[in-house]
Amino acid sequence: MSKAHWVLAIFLLAAPAYAQSSKLFSERASSAAPLTQIPNFSALAKQVTPAVVSIHVEQRAKLSRSRNPHDFWFFGPEGNGPQREYGGARGLGSGFVIRADGLILTNNHVVEEAETIDIELEYPNGTVKTLRAKVLGTAPEYDVALIQTEEDAKAPIAYLGDSDAVDIGDWVMAVGNPFGLSHSVSTGIISAKERRDIAPSGRTGLYDFLQTDASINPGNSGGPLINMRGEVIGINSAVNAQGSGIGFAIPMNMVKAMLPDLQSKGKYSRSWIGIRIQSLTPELAQSYGLPGTAGALVAETVSGGPAQVAGIKDGDVLLSFNGQELRRSTDLPLFASMAGVGREVPVKVWRGGKELTLKVKLAAFPDEKVQASANEGPHEGTSAQLGLTVNDITPQVQKELELASAKGVLVKNVDPSGLAARSGLRPADVILSLNSEEVTSAKGFATLTKALKPGSVMRLQVQRGDAKIYVALRQP
Which of 54, 56, 143, 383 is catalytic? Predict the structure, then answer.
């Protein structure tokens, strides 16, 4: 073969590879089958809707609350959003039957403060029946309630599913009584899971919401969120006041864990680890030598509580609980409350630049918390660089401020434009330690701060009222 032919052959062989590598994007063939089909929901609706009930409540009047217009709402009474939820004497919500004699799941806020509860059932043959009901048990922190009709309802039931098995993008159906329109259904998908930083109507709680774009409106509270098998995977609970297509449901696996206690005790016995925690800021994480802000910083252990007994200390960073990674500090209260009273669980701890695992035996959550208070006090040492003045805690100051001990130094003044103020320090805070070194006097505090290199991070343990927290400042 001539030299010219060899060159041509090489060019032809190389051309397809060159063309393929230079392609900007790829397309499927027009004959490719769709990856999914939109399901037919009619059979699903026929199976589920007979088990869904309307709940009519006569409530004791409550004072209306002010709220941020960007709040997430709990669904209020019929047609009025959250405004009537706090001010009106009548309420409307939804629920679903889980046992044929009239055992019904709904939201706590639907039946909260109820004087009378009437359940409206619509049977498959078209018969409508109204029955009086009573509350069997509530879990306000999770917005769950279990109620029971006073006579045998002989009602169709809803089957409970596995909410852990649901994936983002799965089809779901929401059923309820929006604006009093009974047995309305809407469809959508699971938009997100593990929504824990939501405070519907300003109410904080131990939430782990499923997020859906299925249309949910006032009156849907307590209705079921259904998967394509016709199983309840969540209880509709909250909606974003500002965004249509953003609704939230309580995962059914969480609810199933509560049911035995709700029926037998009238409340859910949540477990307790006995610590106060805070989130890690980037500066705090750096001061601990951690690569990111995942985890929960132990601001304070409760004296004699499960964590303290197990060896967890103030200033530890908890990385995982019972094998579950703590991606955010807000994960821990939920995980700890659901783990089980009396159960021993492994907790992975970051301390002194090393990981260790401790076993914590969880206790029942105490009914009441011990409260303490603090005010203000006297004098000695100023840090112009940090923008604060600190004082020794004398016996007189300790007595005047009712401090539990004379440990640390008292923050007397904070420059509003200074570094300390920007980092969150306040007058009347008590600084207990700096980078894990105990602070015993204003003079000692000044010595410790001066020894730090410019640009280094200082981690302060601070007593504020009855709580301990950590504050990070970067040395100028």
Answer: 143
What are the backbone dihedrals phi and psi of residue 96, each rounded to the nearest 5 degrees, phi first? -145, 145
- Does the annotation mark 101 as catalytic? no
**203: its two tokens:** 């109410």
Q: Is 109 among the residues known to form the active site?
A: yes
pLDDT digits (tens, 9 = 90+) for 11-63: 444 545 444 557 888 777 777 677 777 788 888 888 999 999 999 998 765 54
Active site residue 143: yes
**pTM strictly above 0.85:** no
Active-site hit among 56, 71, 94, 109: 109
Kindly list the structural domains of the chain, giving each domain's residue range(s) and its CATH number in brackets, ordered by start: 40-268 (2.40.10.120), 272-364 (2.30.42.10), 382-474 (2.30.42.10)
